[in-house]
Design brief:
Chain lengths: 250, 128
């Protein structure tokens, strides 16, 4: 509990060189209603315990580095205000559904592999020379995917998704939303390449539309919506395969 | 990499967030709908058994236990339908140029509207 302008943070601690199991350590920090949880963790590191390890960078909800579990909820700690928890203690843990490297830092390796798998970039069959100018796009064409392009790779959606925790093959909300973002981009010609990956086994079909990924997304990307749209697109591809055998098209 | 800590699987994950519980309840409604489908198939089978068998089956369905089962199935079906229509704007966005049709409008146009229309036609066909 906290009192007299103080608030308690219970921090998840795990140092692989000494610990076999994680533990929680309590720290009392000054309470300032303008502070966010990240400010409090930084204060602990600067003034009480320099061994506390965490990731952060921009402090303004752009870089996506400071995602952690705050009282069990996946949050950007730079956007989680202490005043929303005070006077109760705040429990801070690394994002669930990821291996923990150290204290509040999780391993991003699996996530990066999944991102890479959906080829999150524009693929062209015919690449124009830069002297020919940009690939033009209308505002209406931009509107089809703009929402999905706002992802900051904070991985909160992976921590909110129960399927990510149980199905290793599942590519997960952010990667699938990004794959769908490029499939919907009028400048892109790589949909079939991407769908080959997305449609395999549990890569996309593992999604059962729990929908909590969209609830916790700080950028309102709505990955759950993107995945359902991608599923519909995949089903169309599947049925097209019956009426238009491969190679028959132009 | 060695030394990483892997959290154990949480079998009771569906109790951790209200959204998870809502999801599980929605999945559970499918069981009642599947059950009702079995009742429907049994009704068709009774038709095949002749007029007397059909009348007997319909009379049996009028019992309090069967009525209660129907009410439960109806509540489950309505909940399933409402949550399904709630997901329509996410899964099937409709764009008018640059603008996306607002969620409630999309639900009416693509969900509740056709549902009520088809239901009205069925009611008309049954009671005419």
């Amino acid at each position: 509990m906290s009192n007299n302008g103080k608030i308690t943070l219970e921090i998840f601690r795990y140092h692989p060189e000494t610990d076999t199991e994680p533990r929680f350590q309590s720290y009392e920090v000054p309470y300032d209603e303008d502070w966010v949880v990240l400010d409090a963790i930084n204060w602990i590191k600067d003034h009480i315990d320099g061994t506390v390890t965490h990731r952060w960078s921009c402090r303004m909800g752009v870089c996506g580095s400071c995602g952690m579990m705050v009282n069990g909820e996946p949050k950007l700690t730079c956007a989680a205000f202490l005043k929303d928890y005070h006077p109760r203690a705040v429990k801070v843990e690394p994002l669930v559904n990821f291996p923990v490297e150290r204290d509040l830092v999780v391993s991003m390796d699996g996530f990066m592999d999944k991102l890479d798998a959906v080829k999150p970039y524009i693929i062209r069959d015919d690449v124009n020379d830069t002297s020919e100018g940009e690939y033009l796009q209308s505002p209406a064409e931009l509107a089809r995917y703009k929402q999905f392009s706002m992802c900051i790779n904070c991985m909160l959606c992976y921590a909110a998704c129960p399927v990510v925790g149980h199905e290793e093959e599942f590519l997960g909300p952010a990667a699938l939303a990004l794959g769908h973002r490029y499939n919907k981009d009028s400048r892109d010609q790589g949909q079939s390449e991407r769908m080959e990956v997305m449609l395999s086994d549990e890569a996309m079909w593992g999604c059962t539309f729990v929908g909590e990924c969209s609830v916790v997304c700080p950028k309102h990307v709505d990955p759950a919506g993107a995945i359902q749209q991608a599923k519909a697109m995949g089903a169309q591809e599947y049925f097209k395969g019956f009426v238009m055998p491969r190679g028959a098209g132009g | 990499m060695s030394g990483q800590y892997h959290r154990p699987h949480r079998w009771a994950w569906w109790t951790e967030r209200p959204g998870y519980l809502r999801f599980m309840i929605r999945e559970l409604t499918s069981v009642f709908m599947a059950g009702y489908l079995v009742v429907f198939v049994m009704t068709l089978a009774s038709v095949g058994g002749g007029e007397a068998a059909f009348a007997e089956w319909i009379a049996a369905l009028g019992s309090p236990a069967w009525m209660a089962a129907h009410v439960v199935a109806l509540i489950a079906a309505v909940w399933h339908a409402v949550t399904f229509f709630g997901a329509v704007p996410q899964a099937m966005p409709v764009f008018l140029g640059e603008r996306r049709l607002p969620g409630p409008v999309a639900q009416i146009v693509m969900g509740y509207g056709p549902w009520l229309t088809v239901s009205a036609v069925i009611v008309w066909w049954v009671v005419r």
